[in-house]
């Protein structure tokens, strides 16, 4: 029930009766518009000019989607009233044709085994036993006919493609523009991005969307819109992966992003964003179509390493060593930094140049929906030639208090306050200066007494140091911190 209510709100927000009539007023006499959502969902809108007589008429919208959701469909137009509508898709196949011709005359053909010639006869189709016709000839009834049944035409009610039929009451004679809107499964789209490093300050961000039509129906010369935003949570569609066999193939792939037609600037729509493909396009069944929508040649970025310390502050000295920082790429989705546009979720792949000028893959991640103004942080992997270690070098007891939490408690609770001396070391064996962040989880109530590099508190009970390490150098951070903790001792005899 929840999903149906969401779908209903999608239709109402995306195209109301009045809004749709107004939007399609200038559309061609017969046209189709498809709005595709991030998941297995699309909104199909068709306009059709139909001659009507005053009173009740039968109208037909042909070639509707095979995966149409009939309960979501509605037809409307000025001066008409829809009395009834039916989704018909009895496909044209052998069994359906046989069943439709039961009780009627059919033509048959069989091959004369002596001459090899075809013999044509007429018979009445009495019944269908499984896939075997029961035929009445002039000479008798055949229950195991060794030939084939031929049909003169497709019987009424069978369609090669699905149709939506309706009874419409018109107030007067004349040609009317009628409109159909409905939801269908079988459509999806998602974004893919390529970030190509220009230098140590800027990168080129290119994006394209992949439109996936698995609806069972083909659409020619249709207008296509894409809605960015999570209408409903579903499994992500599996998309094809590029197989890059050479540097030249990689460069050609990246260049193809920039050469493709770019979609229009997104339009805000009821909490989502709508992109439009500027020209009509065709969507074949089973086809994946790719269209570019982002081309930002100089986006300011920062590459840095993030280290999460595993030190804890209680009774024992703890340590860690040989921890490689996570390789993080950060940039802001703002115009002054070269972006500033809604970015729908998708996979983003990063490429950098080696010393010979060849483009190499250096990592990828998933970008969540990002509005204009949001910060973007993506982990691409780990630094190979930067490593960190940390150690609690000394623990001094400052105070201790023993007490019982209740009169019934037989164990003693010890509240102890210690001063911890901590040393972190980060070594950079790379040939470039590295921006690094060290994050230390802090117990509740712990406080920094002194630190050789000024840090700052962040949400999640983290204390963070940001610093640079020159090529071939080691940066040391010394910290004194105080922590109070409790532990129980049931072996102690509590003294009042």
Written overview of the protein:
The protein is mainly beta. The protein folds into four domains: 2-89 and 161-184, Immunoglobulin-like (Sandwich); 91-157; 187-301, no CATH class; 387-489, Sandwich (Immunoglobulin-like), CATH 2.60.40. It is 8% helix and 54% strand. It is built from four helices and 34 strands. It has helices spanning 2-14, 17-23, 94-100, 247-259, and strands at 30-36, 42-52, 55-62, 74-76, 80-88, 90-91, 105-111, 118-129, 132-137, 140-142, 148-150, 158-159, 163-170, 174-184, 187-197, 202-213, 219-228, 267-269, 272-276, 281-283, 287-300, 302-308, 319-323, 326-332, 346-353, 359-367, 375-382, 386-403, 412-428, 434-441, 447-451, 456-458, 462-469, 474-489. Strands 1, 2, 4, 14, 17, 18, 19 and 20 form an eight-stranded mixed β-sheet that branches. A six-stranded mixed β-sheet has the order 27-24-22-30-33-32, with no helix packed on it. The chain has a five-stranded antiparallel β-sheet with strand order 10-9-8-7-11, with no helix packed on it. A hairpin with a 2-residue loop joins strand 8 and strand 9. The protein is elongated and about 110 Å long. The two termini are 64 Å apart. Residues 1-29 and 232-261 have low confidence and may be disordered.
């Amino acid at each position: 029930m929840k999903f149906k209510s969401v779908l209903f709100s999608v239709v109402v927000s995306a195209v109301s009766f009045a809004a749709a009539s107004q939007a399609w007023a200038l559309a061609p006499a017969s046209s189709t518009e498809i709005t595709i959502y991030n998941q297995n969902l699309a909104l199909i809108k068709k306009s059709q000019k139909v001659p009507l007589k005053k009173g009740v008429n039968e109208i037909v919208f042909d070639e509707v989607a095979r995966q149409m959701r009939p309960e979501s469909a509605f037809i409307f137009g000025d001066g008409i009233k829809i009395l009834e509508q039916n989704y018909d898709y009895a496909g044209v196949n052998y069994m359906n044709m046989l069943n439709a011709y039961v009780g009627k005359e059919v033509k048959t053909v069989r091959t004369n085994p002596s001459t090899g010639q075809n013999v044509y006869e007429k018979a009445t189709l009495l019944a269908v036993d499984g896939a075997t016709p029961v035929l009445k000839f002039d000479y008798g009834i055949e229950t195991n006919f060794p030939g084939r049944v031929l049909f003169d035409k497709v019987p009424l009610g069978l369609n090669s493609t699905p149709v939506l039929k309706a009874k419409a009451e018109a107030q007067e004679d004349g040609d009317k523009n009628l409109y159909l809107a409905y939801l269908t499964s079988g459509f999806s789209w998602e974004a893919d991005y390529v970030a190509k490093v220009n230098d140590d300050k800027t990168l080129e961000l290119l994006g394209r969307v992949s439109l996936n039509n698995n609806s069972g129906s083909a659409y020619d010369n249709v207008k296509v819109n894409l809605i960015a935003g999570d209408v409903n949570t579903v499994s992500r569609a599996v998309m094809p992966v590029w197989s890059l066999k050479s540097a030249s193939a990689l460069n050609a792939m990246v260049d193809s992003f920039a050469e493709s037609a770019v979609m229009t600037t997104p339009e805000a729509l009821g909490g989502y964003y709508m992109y439009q493909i500027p020209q009509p396009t065709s969507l074949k069944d089973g086809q994946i179509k790719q269209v570019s929508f982002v081309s930002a040649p100089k986006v300011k970025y920062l590459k840095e390493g993030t280290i999460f310390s595993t030190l804890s502050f209680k009774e024992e000295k703890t340590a860690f060593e040989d921890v490689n920082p996570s390789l993080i790429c950060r940039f802001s989705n703002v115009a002054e930094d070269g972006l500033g546009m809604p970015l729908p979720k998708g996979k983003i792949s990063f490429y950098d140049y080696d010393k010979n000028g060849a483009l190499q893959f250096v990592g990828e991640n998933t970008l969540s929906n990002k509005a204009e103004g949001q910060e973007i942080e993506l982990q691409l992997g780990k630094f190979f030639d930067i490593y960190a270690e940390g150690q609690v070098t000394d623990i001094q007891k400052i105070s201790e208090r023993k007490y019982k939490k209740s009169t019934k408690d037989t164990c003693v609770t010890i509240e102890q306050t210690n001063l911890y001396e901590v040393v972190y070391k980060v070594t950079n064996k790379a040939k470039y200066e590295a921006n690094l962040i060290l994050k230390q989880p802090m117990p509740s109530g712990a406080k920094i007494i002194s630190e050789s590099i000024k840090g700052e508190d962040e949400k999640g009970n983290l204390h963070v140091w940001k610093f640079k390490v020159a090529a071939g150098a080691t940066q040391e951070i010394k910290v004194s911190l105080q922590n109070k903790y409790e532990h129980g001792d049931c072996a102690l005899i509590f003294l009042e």
